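Can you give me the bound-state structure? Components:
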Amino acid sequence: KTVTGFASATIGNVACGFDVLGFAIKEPGDEVILTLHEESSSESPVSIKTIHGDGGALPRDPKKNTSSFVVLKFLEYLRNHKGIDFQGHIDLELKKNLPLSSGMGSSAASAAAALIAANELLGGPCTKMELVHFAIEGERVACGSAHADNAAPAMLGNFILIRSYNPLDLITIPPPDQLYCTLAHPHIELRTAYARSVLPRSISLKTATEQWGNVGALISGLLTSDYELIGRALVDVIAEPKRATLIPGFYQVKEAALGAGALGCSIAGSGPSIFAFSSSAATAEKAGTAMRNAFLDIDEHLEADIWVS
Ligand code: HSE
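Here's the bound-state model for the whole set.
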């Protein structure tokens, strides 16, 4: 039996919501194909058959690769909590369509796609909410931090607000009808672990106040389809100022998106991708062209892929 799972790119933080807010876009995304064999293997219940599209960068050891690691965690959970003792063997094939270290939730997409496929392969023993826990553990393997703002929307779709990590309390917010996202991915890599290491360990009460005012306003804007408010609230006074220095021309690209009519613009996840929100498809396309051109103005070799969804 063979099953394919798909999970799309996600954008974490959404400016002010560091580690507590993220959303899924429709495409691109990663695909994981799992094949079930009845006979068990003496080594590991999951093995990696092939990975396409990573240029050989991802680990092939099932315990170290995010997509196989989360399937191992899933099988362990079935054994310990559901009384299902898996005896066979699973071959994993990963089609890595998302660029690595891009800020597009690449590791979360691989983990979510693998979990969706594994759950279906074994007859759906877990709910999506249960699977989210394993996807979050996959983030720890991928970058050393178990943040949920990519993993949860990769598994559940929509905007997801993480009210609490322990216990995990996720709130789903459907996107407003006319909200368009432009995502620009410049062809450079920025590792999440590094982009987290530049963040401040503590912040002032004044900074915190400013940030949570914007998070509340952004949620309100999303729930009431108040596009102007969404734009006003797309402000990050904690991570963006530090990470902007790691992205060539970040402020020029942001200016270009706003100049094209976007509501707001910030760093996608830990970067280097940059996203902008618009309230019409035409503006989102215009913002994409302006963002791509801004990268090229900074460095004529700095190509960027653009997605509008
Ligand atoms: N919240 C995470 C971060 C997202 O900003 O480090 C990483 O994509």
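A couple of observations. The mean pLDDT is 96. The first helix runs from residue 66 to 81.
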